[in-house]
Amino acid sequence: MKMKKMKGRKKVREPRFCFKTLSTDVDVLDDGYKWRKYGQKVVKNTQHPRSYYRCTQENCRVKKRVERLAEDPRMVEVCFVEMNNMEFIGVEE
Q1: Among 4, 17, 67, 79, which residue's Cβ finds the most Cβ atoms within 10 Å?
Q2: Assign residue 45 a region: left if phi > 0, alpha if psi is -120 to 50, beta otherwise?
Q3: Domain ranges within the chain, ordered by starting residue
Q4: Where is the WRKY domain (predicted)?
Q5: Model pTM?
Q6: Chain-wide mean pLDDT for the chain?
Q7: Burial zone of 83 (CB within 10 Å; 0-12 exposed, 13-18 middle, 19+ buried)
């Protein structure tokens, strides 16, 4: 997990929320928000790349990571990072 380093203090983990869902197309996951793809990375031991997205709302720092599971390519794992600025239906912080 990515850690933020604070001056003179312990590292603090960024808040994140992850879930798995069925998806036929990894680039079209409609969650009600608009995202801009800013990267893609080949992950070891899998043939499917991981995609990185940023929220397009002004002053929003939320990022989304989308990755197909190696064991079942129909399943997608979605992780939201720094989601304290957004409210997701059914998600409590």
Answers
A1: 67
A2: left
A3: 22-85
A4: 24-89
A5: 0.70
A6: 78
A7: buried
